Amino acid sequence: MQEYAEMYRKELVDNVLPFWLQNSRDDRNGGFFTCLDRTGKVFDTDKFMWLQGREVWCFSYMYHNVSAEKSWLDMALHGAAFMEKFGRDQSGNWYFSLTAEGKPLVQPYNIFSDCFAAMAFAALDKVQPSDKYKEIAVSTFNNILERQHDWKGVYNKAYPGTRPLKGFSLPMILCNLSLEMEHLLGSEKVNELAPVVIHEVMNVFYQPEHGLILENVNPDGSFSNSFEGRLMNPGHTIEAMWFIMDLGRRLQDEALVKKACDIMLRTLEYGWDKEYGGIFYFLDLLGHPTQQLEWDQKLWWVHVETLVALAKGYTYTGDERCLQWFHKVHAYTWTHFKDQQYGEWFGYLNRRGEVLLNLKGGKWKGCFHVPRALYQVWNTLKADNI
Amino acid sequence: MQEYAEMYRKELVDNVLPFWLQNSRDDRNGGFFTCLDRTGKVFDTDKFMWLQGREVWCFSYMYHNVSAEKSWLDMALHGAAFMEKFGRDQSGNWYFSLTAEGKPLVQPYNIFSDCFAAMAFAALDKVQPSDKYKEIAVSTFNNILERQHDWKGVYNKAYPGTRPLKGFSLPMILCNLSLEMEHLLGSEKVNELAPVVIHEVMNVFYQPEHGLILENVNPDGSFSNSFEGRLMNPGHTIEAMWFIMDLGRRLQDEALVKKACDIMLRTLEYGWDKEYGGIFYFLDLLGHPTQQLEWDQKLWWVHVETLVALAKGYTYTGDERCLQWFHKVHAYTWTHFKDQQYGEWFGYLNRRGEVLLNLKGGKWKGCFHVPRALYQVWNTLKADNI
């Protein structure tokens, strides 16, 4: 395990963080470019607020947890200044995207921009305490809670009442976000929120008869036999399970940690491609064709989040199955996603594991899952934890 | 050519139309099921208005142009009754989807539901003239013209003014729709509309320096260096070019027919996958990674519409390149898309031409492109035309 730990640490500090430091900073307009080709060259200049927030979070977090490198803090401050200046509409909702110069391009239709903005300013406030950062983080968080049951607002295309499904993404992210913001929200608030989101994830979205979690369920948690209702996203479940394991540790609830570890392993078994290796992006619970044409692709975040979940599962519960799976997923991931020639990792592979999009960052891939996972695996496996 | 013509006719009347007749009719609720697995079994019961309209159009059209089979007219009337009863909101906009029973599921965010509804009732009115069908077709058509410049309405996520791109889809469909509705709109209206849509397609969206058509351009037709602006959809352009060739024939404009044929051939050359064969779904004009993860997949409609365009190009202009390409695309399409074991054709293949989704119909594939293309190729190539 110590060899793994060192390998993940080295990849984080020698390859991945330097790639973003060197290639993503927009010195002219502020903020970050995230559409970077294989070599790190910018191929599109639009700025997606999700990814601006995630990169601010990442450099703040690494400065706090890995090493107080001045260039990392500078990078976080650089991104935060751009976000603060251009990122929000008049009601404080975060736009989905801006032009390079900061003009709004796409409206705040997506509450996950707000989630990562809150996470960014909360993390930055930890390393550079400021009333302004605190205010942005907390007011954004409160806005998320207010909007959580109808966050699509006018952009919601569902006809009211016919099939009122609930989505898994927001409760899942709130698990992680409440822990990330505990220093601002206070332990009491986290103690109050935690049981609610844990109940949503582990009871409402979890389907006991299958032992699996669905992306969309009826309001009472029952199965909806529709495209949305049958949809499974194994990587999403697996990532949520490490959030839950962390929450379980925070609440000293060993049974919860064990339950999350079991669901994670069952999902991995279910989502693993027995023919070509790797984890499918989407599956249909009943085995029907999915709506998503990209269902059989292998995505970076799915695989690196699985490595985190397996490392945590093994360290927290000692379950040997986690160790066996870790070896297997590690081998697949490092062989297929890590670029042996240029910096950072590929994001999108086809079912056979061949590179599908020749990029290191884009509209959805930024400076987030790879560095966070490298840190989490390293930090979980290093000597003093086992 | 006569052998081809007979092959396409036989596939239409012996395989494809019977498949939909046997499997898609919902006798309990009315309307059509379109989510059909490889064997024709229903795997999802939602009703997508696009596909309801397209199937009504198809059976009306075949009744009118191929043979007055009572079962075909019955099928069209059966679908039209369901559409008429449940398909529209109070303003006459067509919903995107309904439950099996006809309850609205997804709001009328998509004007293409309206386009295919207008086309359906216009075609049905040709074979079963009725003031009611005429009224639905014409009022829907007028509503499309009224909404055409802001058809996304409240569902538009673009921030006003920053990057006001125009999309290719609607002008392209209006080329075809105005011809399909000529008996209701009158020749004068078509003569008035035609130059406008032809100008849009052949001047605004066409980029002379590349000789290609883009999916989205600035309002003045210039290139926008953005994900949307760089996007090419070769199948879309090729399909539009046979609409333009038909309009060119209708207007007796030989130069227009020839120009459309040239653009079609250039697009096919550009979009053809030199490694595995078949036509790519999406490409980026500058060769950057696309947003669309499904960019390298091979889709049924792209290939069958290309066969139509090549047959028309050859018949209308005599260009030998059309004939050479026809042999090649025909061989790829019939080998990879036609199911040798069960009825109808596969819809979605991966880059290598292997079946990606084991379905014959779904949310976007219904009773439309395959039968229309089989009819068009047969009708274009048959003896009396050449």
SSE topology:
2 copies of one chain form a homodimer.
Chain A: H1 2-23, E1 35-37, E2 42-44, E3 47-48, H2 49-65, H3 70-86, E4 97-98, E5 104-106, H4 111-127, H5 131-147, E6 166-167, H6 169-180, H7 182-185, H8 187-204, E7 206-207, E8 212-213, E9 216-217, H9 227-230, E10 231-232, H10 234-250, H11 254-271, E11 283-284, E12 298-299, H12 300-317, H13 320-336, E13 348-349, E14 359-361, H14 369-381
Antiparallel strand pairs in A: 1-2, 1-14, 3-4, 4-5, 6-9, 7-8, 10-11, 12-13
Helix pairs in contact in A: 1-14, 2-3, 2-4, 3-4, 4-5, 4-6, 6-8, 6-10, 10-11, 10-12, 11-12, 12-13, 12-14
| Pattern of helices and strands of chain A | HEEEHHEEHHEHHHEEEHEHHEEHHEEH
User: Helix- and strand-based class of chain A?
Assistant: mainly alpha
Residues in helices of chain A, as a percent range = 40-55%
Quick one: overall form of chain A?
Answer: globular
CATH architecture of chain A: Alpha/alpha barrel
**Percentage beta strand of chain A:** 5-15%
Query: The CATH topology of chain A, please?
Result: Glycosyltransferase
Residue-averaged pLDDT of chain A: 96
Oligomer: homodimer
**Main beta-sheet annotation of chain A:** 3 strands, antiparallel
Cα distance spanning the termini of chain A: 9 Å
Tell me the domain tally of chain A: 1
List the strand order in the largest sheet of chain A.
2-1-14
Q: Low-confidence parts of chain A, pLDDT < 50 over ≥5 residues?
A: none
The helix tally of chain A amounts to 14
Largest interface: A-B, 42 and 42 residues
Please give the CATH class of chain A: Mainly Alpha
